[in-house]
Design a protein that fits this description.
With 763 residues, the chain is α/β, with parallel strands linked by helices. The strands form five sheets. Strands 6, 7, 8, 9, 10, 11, 12, 13, 14, 15 and 16 form an eleven-stranded mixed beta sheet that branches.
């Protein structure tokens, strides 16, 4: 019998394959199949040199990609090439090689795995240890200071491994082989309580003390993986109201944490997709349909959804074991509009008067990361806030983005850097409305440049001249001598869909949001475009209205409603027997309507706007659902929550000279209000109307252009009713429909679209 011939190959794997146990995975597969050779990390992935029979090599390649792959791994490409014959002694992991011009993927932070939770119950050196981790879980991005991802270049450098941890760290067959944050009670980080005598290592007492405070109606500031949370019972209306008052967060919903899926199902309706999202290694906050009256109304102030996450740190699990309550409020640990706090010293000063106690630890957070927020539309995941668990995963592209930087917008700020074929988006940074957030922006930008070895040579920004992000881009461009390019806000939204999905053909883009600087100097936000990254054409848009008081109207929805009434009825709007007019008289004074009327008639401080967000504000105010936006998007969100899904009616509308005329819609809504039609019925009819005229607009543009791809973006498409309605109807009409999924449809996705348009313009 003839011996099978041996072959030598090189396998190069790119993706998220470092710092997550991929080399031990390769090693175990090789040893089990009798493969000899080596595996090593390189700056741009993993290199495997393998020798074996053809059938063994074939099985080895398959299993490396598909069998027992570490849960956090993302394999994006595998290349296999033949090599000259070479004999190896067994299979070994060799020291990493560095290729200075290559790209290193940095793992996002991951939730603690089930194996570690089991170890926490039985390993003597890790009993109830709140920092237990392995190659499949634990902190990554939040602790890294530089690359390559080695312990000395993380904030774990100050903790010297004990003999037990060291033996696991160097044992190829151990789950903690090369787990850089490896630690135990003898050598690792510890929690402590501010101004208390409980020993750092006495975690049991710390947990009991924390649980006791929460169950007695107190608020604690808890240091986590990427920053602090303000934590209290989610079932105690009084303490929730106290947290709102102390944090000055009047009505914006609070995120919740519950111990397991079974508990969540007592408060919310879950799909299989949502269950998988909740249990994923990312552990995001998932927006779920709430079971009515199952929670205190102070949690979400009139909305029909709740944002819930499962525990993702060992401390969370230990805490729930001691708590009587099964629902925790987990609000970002910051003052209103400021970045999340990451140091104990800052927590002491920031949370005075807010938290009753501060629970901190001594593993420093180098990169702050908020909780990510997502929702599921049918079986598709849509990220609203992209941060912990996803950042800094890149978007791969074939666009020439190398050495480009884009700076996003003003709200929900992010930036993006281009490195070869990678677009690296920053974590959610917040709204650039104060110095603290701007400093966070600049600090993160400098860190990302260093981590990913990017020195930008083209800077892309929003066309709004007063955005702090725009000013930053222009300032850096002037300092470096490289050019800067301005990109229109809503075109960037549509471009983000094109880049995310790698689309090559033109699209008809529907962009609906609150506001953005238009190319004609007015405020846009209800636009239908045609084109692609090279050029967009504004085809159809909402009828513009005047916004009395400018930005003030975005907060006071009744102002926008008066403008729509004035546009529709003229001076006669004041004789309409509407609740909104009575409300203005009582709350603002009887002369306020006359003042707004005068501003509108004479165009005094009343810029034009075609914003879909403002149209939602108008309907919300007219129906009495919400007269003021106490946080961004409150009125549209409450309108969506009020809508009765069983209502399929709609209002009349028409498109004249490429303008969607809203006057017939307003008249019909007013007639329904005067007939005492339920606000929920009006809300549903209105949103059905938006779906209809949106899809008809896309069809009209298709007749002109022949384009069959539809792209949906902008903050309004976080409204499930509108998103699912438009997607369904457009598909019925034969369109290929694309929307943002792993990139926010809101302004958090602008940087991706900007860098895509910059790549084409700069190329």
């Amino acid at each position: 019998m003839q011996n099978a011939e041996y072959i030598n190959i090189r396998i190069h794997i790119e993706g998220l394959v470092q710092g997550i146990g991929f080399r031990p995975h390769v090693y175990r597969n090789a040893v089990s199949k009798g493969i000899s050779g080596t595996v090593e990390n390189s700056d741009n992935g993993v290199d495997i040199h393998a020798r074996g029979t053809e059938i063994k090599i074939k099985n080895f390649i398959h299993d490396v990609q598909y069998t027992g792959v570490p849960p956090a791994a993302i394999i994006q490409s595998v290349s296999v090439t033949s090599e000259a014959k070479c004999l190896y002694t067994g299979f070994k992991i060799v020291k990493s090689s560095l290729q200075s011009n290559s790209i290193t993927r940095i793992s996002p932070d991951m939730a603690v795995c089930d194996d570690c939770l089991e170890d926490m119950k039985k390993q003597p050196e890790r009993l109830n240890y709140p920092f237990i981790n392995c190659t499949n879980c634990g902190p990554r991005f939040s602790i890294i200071r530089d690359i390559p991802y080695d312990r000395e270049k993380t904030t774990m450098a100050e903790f010297t491994m004990c003999n037990t941890c060291r033996s696991e760290f160097i044992n190829i067959n151990d789950r903690r082989f090369h787990a850089q944050p490896i630690a135990c009670t003898r050598c690792g980080p510890a929690y402590f309580i501010n101004n208390m005598s409980i020993k750092n290592t006495d975690i049991d007492n710390i947990i009991r003390y924390s649980a006791g405070l929460i169950d007695s109606g107190r608020i604690i500031a808890l240091m986590g993986m990427g920053g602090y949370h303000l934590v209290c019972s989610g079932m105690d209306p009084d303490v929730i109201e106290t947290l709102r008052r102390r944090k000055r967060r009047e009505s914006k919903p609070f995120a919740l944490m519950m111990p397991d899926i079974d508990t969540i199902q007592r408060f919310a309706i879950l799909s299989e997709t949502e269950k998988k999202l909740l249990s994923s290694v990312q552990r995001p906050v998932v927006l779920l349909k709430q079971i009515p009256e199952s929670l205190p109304e102070q949690i979400n102030s009139g909305l029909d959804t709740i944002g819930v996450m499962l525990p993702y740190m060992p401390f969370h699990y230990l805490l729930f074991k001691e708590l009587q309550t099964e629902v925790l409020v987990m609000s970002s640990g910051n003052r209103s509009s400021e970045p999340i706090v990451i140091s104990h010293e800052k927590a002491v000063s920031q949370f005075e008067g807010i938290a009753d106690t501060i629970i901190s630890h001594n593993r420093r957070i180098h990169n702050r990361v908020d909780d990510s927020v997502v929702f599921a539309s049918e079986k598709t995941v849509h990220i609203i806030r992209r941060s912990r668990g996803w950042v800094p995963d890149p978007i791969l592209t074939d666009l020439p983005v190398d050495r480009l930087a884009s700076f996003g917008g003003e709200l929900k700020s992010t930036f993006a850097l281009g490195r070869k074929n990678h677009i690296i988006l920053s974590q959610h940074l917040g709204d650039l409305e104060n110095m603290e957030t701007m400093e966070f922006f600049q600090e993160s930008y400098s860190r990302f440049k260093r981590l990913f070895k990017v020195e930008p040579e083209l800077f892309v920004h929003d066309k709004h001249p007063d955005y702090l992000s725009t000013r930053s881009a222009l300032k850096i461009a002037a300092e470096t001598g490289y050019p800067a390019i301005g990109v229109q806000h809503h075109e960037a939204h549509i471009a983000s869909v094109i880049v995310e999905h790698g689309l090559k053909e033109p699209v008809i883009g529907v962009c609906y949001d609150g506001s953005g600087y238009g190319s004609d100097g007015t405020i846009w936000g209800g636009e239908i475009f045609s084109g692609g990254l090279e050029e967009f054409q504004r085809e159809i848009h909402l009828q513009p209205i005047k916004l009395p008081g400018g930005d003030t109207a975005s907060k006071h929805t009744w102002r926008t409603a008066l403008s729509y009434l004035y546009q529709t009825y003229g001076d006669g709007f004041k004789s309409l027997p509407l609740e909104i007019l009575e409300w203005i008289g009582k709350s603002e004074g009887p002369e306020r309507v006359n003042q707004i009327q005068f501003m509108l008639k004479n165009s005094i401080n009343s810029p034009l706007s075609s914003s879909m967000g403002r149209l939602f504000d108008c309907i919300s105010a007219l129906t009495g659902v919400c007269f003021e936006n106490r946080y961004e998007g409150e009125a549209p969100m409450l309108l969506e929550a009020a809508a009765k899904p069983e209502e399929h009616g709609h209002y009349p509308w028409n498109i004249t000279e490429n303008i969607i005329d809203t006057r017939e819609i307003i008249r019909a809504v007013v007639q329904d209000i005067l007939k005492k039609v339920h606000p929920g019925v009006i809300a549903a009819r209105f949103m059905n109307t938006v779906v209809q005229f949106s899809c008809e607009s896309v069809s009209l543009v298709k007749e002109r252009t022949g384009i069959k791809n539809a792209a949906l973006s902008g903050g309004v498409f976080q409204n499930r009713y509108i998103l699912e309605g438009c997607e369904s109807e457009l598909r019925r009409r034969g369109f290929h429909v694309y929307s943002n999924s792993l990139i926010p449809a809101n302004d958090g996705g602008l940087a991706l679209g900007q860098i895509g348009m910059g790549a084409v313009a700069g190329g």
